[in-house]
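Handoff note, outgoing to incoming analyst
You'll be picking up this chain. Sequence as last confirmed:
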Amino acid sequence: MLVKRLLPVLLFTGLVQLAYAETPVTISSPNNNIQLTVYHRADGSLQYAVTYKEKPVINPSGLGMKLTSPQVSLLQFDLEAADSAVTDESWKPAWGEQSTIRNNYKQLLLKLTDRSGSGIRLQIVFRVFDDGVGFRYIFPQQAKLNHFILADERTQFAVTGDHTAFWIPGDYDTNEYAYYTSPLSKIDASGGGGAREISTRTFFDKHAVQTPLMMKSAEGLYINLHEAALLNYPAMNLVLDKPTYTFSSHLVPDAVGNKAYLQAPFSTPWRTVIVSDKATEILASRLILNLNEPSKIPDATEWIKPQKMVGVWWEMHVGKSSWDYSGGQVGSQQSTRVPHGATTANVKKYIDFAARNGIRGVLVEGWNTGWEDWFGQWKEDVFDFVTPYPDFDVNELQQFAAAKGVQLIMHHETSGSATNYERWMDTAYRFMNQHGYAAVKTGYVGKIIPRGEHHDGQWMIRHYERVASKTAQYHIMLDAHEPVRPTGLHRTYPNWLASEAARGNEFNAWSVGNRPDHETILPFTRLMGGPMDYTPGIFKIKMSTYNPEKKEQVHTTLSKQLALYVTMYSPLQMAADLPENYEARMDAFQFIKDVAVDWDDSKILEAEPGDYVIIARKAKGKNDWFLGAITDENTRNFAETLSFLDADKKYVATIYRDADSAHWQHNPEAYLIEKFIVDYKTVLKIKLAPGGGTAVSLMPAKADELKQIKKYKK
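Most recent structure output, in case you need it:
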């Protein structure tokens, strides 16, 4: 839905004077903090540059494309015309971090013709916002040839020095890496980075990184590079030229080495540069969402319901049960057998737990045949997505869940066989409709079929959109695992609630795990493109609980697991631990029960990538606020003014914090719960243990609570 502001949209068109070679054109952001300059050089080449408050952010950087068919390098142009425009409007997302988003930018559109004589026309459009810049290439309808094969983009991002970077290696197939924090000059992906140990790992350049890429300059500028509206086009990696600190785009190839097949008219994804001198403003940016198209779902979206879920999932990761019917452990070297997890009786336990605690969804993995023969096999037709194991009664569970007011969530692991999944989608989604499943979690572990295609190549980008579109037709919500990293498409397909597309909480169960700084980096990187199904809420921190020989553990305190429900945004949040672990600590589980998943407003209070994040959010349609504060391996102290609260109300602050002795490694499950009366003038002291966090619910106080609960004092 698009809501016009009272201030009318100002739209004007005019010829920008670029008559003389080397004459730059500069447009500024609405608040004049950001300036974009475009250079049309004497040789016909184009460059752009970006400054923030007169400080250089992107030095003059090249633009262009190289085609394989026809064999043309689109690097030198004649400028035919240039149009400019200003837009100021507001729109309401179906769900999100705030109920209304302002879209305010100035635009420059360059209309170009290839100077080499091919006659190919190309356009480049730039939009300059208060929080950054977006630009894209457009192939308009051509006079002759309208079909092109792309060899690669020639887009550059020349940063201004040896910035501190938060990065993961460039890869065509996985983004499940632990983040490195290093100067740009130290980027070297040849050492790995901790990806899931599967055969899809594909390194193509040791100086390549994935987007979103977060950087901090020595001058104190925070810079984020990513893309928006990735549709029918390969994902963009960035390859660093260290001597010049210039990143060049590198698109994911297909099975024969081409990057993309284009048919005019066509627009590439937006290339984005988000910049500020405040880290909090990076997290508050809505630039990527604003560069995506409005919803393509034509009917009403009341069926799209942000929600929490529990599920038959974590118990497989910790080795308590199995995905497959025979009791084998997927990817495990151990020969011991464990019970099958997705049994009718076991799922009923989760449904009962969800119903008792007001949780809407129950995810069930391992319910369907095929799990004995799927992992890493590169087989095309392992799953049919409609045939349950003998111990999983679809009809009985449908009736049981409906009687309890709970909805089951389907799981579709494709084992990388996208072709097989596409053949089954209609049948599988009809099956879901018939049996009361309103949401599906898809998975793409393994090498992609068609053979030679990659998770992040054009073929799979088209596949992910087909899944989003097809699920919308069946009124099904989508949670994609092992896909390409998000680029704001949840605006266009609001049924696409979440994705994994990063190293999630599951790695803590069976690997070296995620370092304590991991969750303080993800909001600045992976989450810039969209919500993440991180699966927080683990209460049993050490995996020795399940096997005395296991050394793995979650690298946070219990209180930090609660805070992640606020700092790691998702409209689909999992209470990931086992019901019995929650039942042993229902006082702490109360926060998970209370915390919202859809918001009217979000305030980024404190943030520093790799160090700490503190966010407060207001629940959709309520006066309830929730605050989450997390840190890395260091203890930290903050004093936060609750000025975002209504001035005429008193609130009950329920504080779930690290105990004084808490430590992510030595004493991770030590926590305290305290209640106080607070108001908008209160300054809340927050102490975070190493690897720790604090979660706070702030709800309007009732008359009896004002009498019974003491006021907060500094």
